[in-house]
Amino acid sequence: KATVSVLNWFVHRCQECARCWQPAQGMGCETSKEETPTGYEPLVGGAPKGNGGWAETTRLGVTAQKQMVLDATGAAKRIEAQHRVEIAMEPMGRRGDFLVVKGTQADVEAARQAMEEVLHLDVPRDDLWTFVMEVPPAQYAEVMGKGNETVRRLEREGRAEVNVVPGTGVVVKGSEAACQATVGLIEIMIGAVRVKRSRGGGGQKMSERCERLAAADLKEEVARPLFFPSRTEEADGYKTADVLLRYLAAAKASLDICVPVVSSPKLAGALIHAQRERGVRVRVIVDGAKGLRPVSVPPAVDRRGHKAAKPAEAADASPTFEESLVPKLKAAGVNCLWAKGGAAAQYRMDHAYALIDQTVVASGSLAFTTAALTRQDENLCIVSEPNAVAAFARCFETHWVGTERGDGGVVGAVPAEEYETQHVAVQVFSPAAPPMQLATRVLVFPNRVVDEAIGRCTLDVLLAHLAGAVRTLDVAARTITCESIAATLAAAADRGVAVRVMGDAEAMDGAARASYDVLARRQVDCRPHARPVSNTYAVVDGALLLYGSLEWSDVGVFAAHAALTMTSHPDTVAAYAERFAHQFTRLRARKAYF
User: Fold this and answer.
1) Read out DSSP for 334-359?
2) How far apart are CA 154 and CA 364, in angstroms?
3) What gap in Å lies between CA 288 and CA 235, rounded to an integer?
4) What is the pLDDT of residues 94-145, one digit of tens each?
5) Of 288, 289, 272, 279, whose CA–CA distance to 331 is shortest?
6) pTM across the whole model
7) Are the C-beta atoms of 248 and 267 separated by less than 8 Å?
8) How far are the Cα atoms of 82, 395, 443, 572, 576 from residue 429, in angstroms, in the given order?
9) Are 264 and 373 in contact (CB under 8 A)?
10) Mapping DSSP to helix (H, G, I), strand (E, B) and coil, where does residue 262 land?
11) What's the rounded mean pLDDT across residues 232-249?
């Protein structure tokens, strides 16, 4: 059978000779007897075509941001299938400004033209040029336009990518001719400015840059997402838990921690060492009820989510509870506060963030427990965005003073009953082109009044950005029982948005079963995660990220201290999108009970 298969392929290869495009004379064709050209490899599957049936490797100039568009919209896979090429994409967060495409010359050229049609940009066969225009900050808005409309027009007309980077200027990337044309269009709008030109390179890898910042100066710009259970980083070899410890160890003046409980010996030891050995002012706020109680430990699971098998003699060796280390922190001189009564006891503590020297904030869903570091599905993002740092600093100071006062610092809270009766419509933002002032924004809960024109309270702002989804809406949440959020997801699915939800298996088949059944009826793909899930994040249209400690339930929204960060930082959004896709594709669809 193997011999027959080889002979059939050989005959078929000769009968349709791709190099000369002439019918061959059977097995005696001289072209078929030629050796494989050096540096080429045979195409896999189908009849050979193009450059003699041999594939070559070609670099195409495509920025990391536009690669995310090709990946998120499925255009890359369609191009691969239609033009019989192989597109090699690096993992998100590590991509350079080029794509490696394998195929015949004709197929690669067809794929390149297809990419240009999708992106509306020039896709050259060599390295991209980068033109940095030193535009004054006062003219950023003029270049961006309302809802980034001017940027999109410039990209369509100039055929190069345009990004407004605060503190740097306007960055134009593309072929040399496209960059020159786009720069000319911008100078017609704002006048002549100084332009710096460079060519090639995908930039320094984010993980390497963050490693340098952690070891040197935390005041430089950084945006680094970390995912748990703690695993080995591909680029620098450090586990995610060790990266967090390095940032805590880099604190020089202050550490402000706000978490439900501290039970991880590693993290507690880092706080005690900072207080005793380096003289860092450490302040910790924990939940009044959970801060002193033992923390339950979920069972260990393997990579597929199955409970890990243990020997019979070791069945009782694994602890089911973790001891709270808050009393030890207090004994070591760390200033700890927890709400023990009064108005503050009405609200649960769901915050999970750490402020380092008032210049860097690490926020997300990660609690300072060993179970969160090693067994639960968690996320944490370390950023030095001034707006985010300032928002969390205000939140901590308000909560610290309020906890001492006894009311938890909650001002202007809107309870669920009042929200349902007085809810007002809000302006819907399209995440594909978020306003510049929303590049990074922090929403603080419990649901409270915000003095802004775009929404009456923080929940309105969250719903407005979820409702702005146009193409895709990927949600990872432990549970979704807040009726307003569930209704917004269902409405997005009704509009044709591809809504995917990944949550905790126990929550999906437990108290939240009815909510997920409603979503399933509206064609929302819901999949349970076997590993305990505390994650809460959403990726909207592959361009906007919402992450934090907010639980999408009535208790989480209306009766808990929590925060939700919204950002459009490309690398951060890409990292979370990759994490979601990696996990979601490995889960089975949930069986709906209706």
Assistant:
1) -EEEE--SGGGGGSEE---EEEETTT
2) 36
3) 40
4) 677 888 888 888 899 899 999 998 998 889 887 788 888 988 888 888 898 8
5) 272
6) 0.60
7) yes
8) 34, 25, 16, 20, 21
9) yes
10) strand
11) 71
